[in-house]
Amino acid sequence: MRGKSILLIIGGGIAAYKALELVRRLAERGVGTRAILTQAGAQFVTPLSVSALTGEKTFGDLFSLTDEAQMGHIQLSRSADLVVVAPATADLMAKMAGGLANDLASTALLATNKPVLMAPAMNVRMWESAAVKRNRAVLEKDGVLFVGPNDGEMACGEFGPGRMAEPLEILAAIEQALAVQGPLKGVKALVTAGPTREPVDPVRFLANHSSGRQGYAIAQALASAGAQTTLISGPVGLAPPDGVKLQRVTTAREMLAACEAALPADVMVMAAAVADWRPDIAANSKIKKSTDRVVPLIKLVENPDILASIATGAQRPRLLIGFAAETDDVVANAVAKRARKGVDWIIANDVSGDVMGGERNRVHLISEAGVEDWPEMTKIEVGTRLAARIAEKLGAA
Ligand code: C5P
Q1: pTM of the entire predicted model
Q2: Does residue 242 surpass a pLDDT of 90?
Q3: Of the chain's two ends, which shows fewer C-beta atoms within 10 Å, N or C?
Q4: Which CATH number goes with the domain that contains 148?
C-alpha cells in the first residue's frame, strides 16, 4: 500500500485516540493521510496532534475560507484512494446513510467517489439500536465497508459490541480495501520464503542464512496489487506482511506439503532457500559428545525439489517463478536452471556478498524473452517491480 493515500475522518468518541496510532502506522507503511476532524472529534484529540502525525493541515470547518482556498471540500473528498472513518460515530453513520451534508465530514462522505471504510465505535445499546442497525444495512447496501466493532469492555463501563477495532485491524482492512482495486485483483498467488530447517536431533539443525526478506517483500507487493496471497514461510524473524495469509513451516518436506495444499494458484513465486539435503535420520534424543572423542557422522539424503515437482505436477500455476541464488556464473547457471526445472521465470541473484539477510538485492529476470538485468535496489522495490511484471504477464495471457 506504499504510495497510497487516505482521507481519515475522525469522529467524536473516546476511541479517537486510536486514530492517532492508526495514522502513525500508516506513515510507517508509506501511506499518506489527510485528516478531517469533526467538531465532536476535536473534543477528544486536537488538530495539532493530528497534524503532527499526518504532517499536513487538519481540516475541520466546511465554511472556513482559508481551508476552502487551500483545498475545496470536493477536491478533498476525492484526493485520496480511500476514505476511512475512525471512529465512526452513530451520528456520522446516520448522516451518511441519510445523505446529509451539514459539515465538512458529512459533505466529504456524500461527495466522494472513492470507497469508504468505517470503524464504528459507540455504546453497545446504541450499536444495537434499531436506528443504527437500519443505517448500517443502508450503508452496506451502498457499498460502504466496515471493520469492527469488537466485543469488550467500553469506556462507559458496559460490555458488548461497540469498541472500535484496534489500529492494526483497521490497517489490515485498509490494506484489503486498497488491494481489491489493484491490477492483480482476482489473482491467487502463492509465495515461499525463508530457509528450511532440517533437524539433526531435538536441539540441532541444518539451515542457511536466508532471512526471508525478499520473499516477504514479494508477498507484500502481490497482496498490495490485489492478489489473494498465501505465504509459506520457513523460520524467520519477520513480522507477517499485511493482508497476506501466512503459514509457517520448518522442514522442506513440510514446505512441499503446505505448497501442495495451497494449490491451485495462478502464480507461484518460490523464493525460499530450501535445504537441498537433510540428515537421513533425526535422532529422537540429543546426540551426546562421546568420551572417546568419536565425531558423529551425519549422512545426508536429498530433499524433494519443490519447484521441480510443482512444475511437472497436475496443478502447475500459469506462471511459475523460481529463484537461483548463485555465487558463480550467476546468469549462465540461472538460464540452465530455468530449462532444467521447467519454470517460466527465474530470478537470479549473486549471493556471494551480504544479499542473504541484507536489505538490498541485485537481480536478473530470466524469462522466455531472455535476460533482463535489474539495477541494484531494495528488496521491497524488487518485490514491487516483480508484482508489476506479473500483473503485465497475467493480464496479457
Ligand atoms: O536448484 P536450486 O536450489 O538452486 O534452485 C533454486 C530454486 O528452486 C528456488 O526457487 C528454490 O526455492 C527452489 N527449490 C525447491 N526445492 C528444493 C530446492 C530448491 O523448490 N529442494
Answers
A1: 0.71
A2: no
A3: C
A4: 3.40.50.1950
